[in-house]
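Researcher: Next entry in the queue.
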Amino acid sequence: MKAGYIWKRFGGVHWRRHPWVISLAVLLTLVAVNASLQPNFFKGSVLESNFRTFVPLLLVAIGQTYVILGGGIDLSIGFIISLVNVATVQLITLSGGSAPLVVLAMLAGLLIGAAAGLVNGVCVAWFRLQPIITTFATSAIWAGLALWIMPRPGGTVPGYYYQTYAGTVLGIPTALWIMAAVCAFCLALKRTAFYTHLLAAGGNMAGAFETGIRVARVRLLSYVLAGLFAGLATLCIVGETASGDPLLGGAFTLNSISAVVLGGSSLAGGFGGALGSVFGALVLRLTDNVIFFAQVDTVYQKLLQGIIVLFALAVGGLITRRRKHYAD
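Model: Structure for this entry, 328 residues:
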C-alpha cells in the first residue's frame, strides 16, 4: 500500500513528465543483453564502431521529433536521405577529390535536405494539406529524383572523407563530436521562443493561433529542421558507405517515427523531446544487434522488428492517455 502510494506520488509523476525514463530503462537492459551476447561489446573500438553506425538514425530521429512536436509527421524523410545521398556523392565525384569542392558538395547536400523540408513545410503549413498524405506524395518525388540522378548504386568518395568520419579529432571520435554539437544545438533550441511555440502549436493548434503564435511559420521551420537533420545524417552515411545508393534511405522513415514514439513523444504533438528520441533510436539499433548476435533466423527477424514497432506505438498511446489523465 505504502509502496504504491510512493510510486503514485513521486515515480508516476516523474514518468509522466519525463517519459524518456522508460526508454532509458529499456536501453540499459539492452546494453546488458548485448554485453552478454557480445563479450567485447565494451571494447573501445567496438563501442566507437557501433556508435558511428548509430549516428545517422539518431540525427534523423531528432529531426522527426521537431515535426511531430508541432503536430505533423514526415513520411518522406527517408527518401530525402536517398536524394541527398546520391546528389552529394555525384557532386563529390565530379569534384575530382578537391577538398574545397568536397566541402561545397557537403554544404550542397545540407541545402538540398533543407530545401526538401521547406517544400514539405510549405505544403503542410501554408497550404494546410494533410501531413501524412503530403509527405507520402513528396516521398515519391524525392525517390524519383534520386533514381534520376543515380539509377544504380555508384560514385566515388575520396579516402580522406570516410577516414575523417571514422577517425578522431583531438583524440575524440568524429561521430562523437558531431553528436556533441547536435546536442548543444538542441539544448540551445529548447530555450528559444520557437521551441515553446512549437509545443504550443502541437498541443493545441487553434489555441496557439488565437494567442498570436505564427503557427504556419513555426510548423514550416520544423520541416526545414527535419530536412536539415536528414541531410546531416546523409553526410554521416556517406562517411560509412563511401558511395551513393538511391534506395538506401527508405528504412529510416519508419525507424525514425518508431524512435520518436519509443522516446515518449506523443504522435498527437505538443509533448516529448529530442532526448527521448535519441534513447529510442539507440533502443532500435541495439535491438538489431541483439537479433544479430542471438543468431535469430532471418525468417523471424522481420517479425521481431514488426513487434518492436507495434510496441513503440502501444507505449506512445499509453503515455498520451496517462499524460491527459495527469493533466486533468
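Model: Residues 6-13 have pLDDT under 50 and may be disordered.
Researcher: Noted, moving on.
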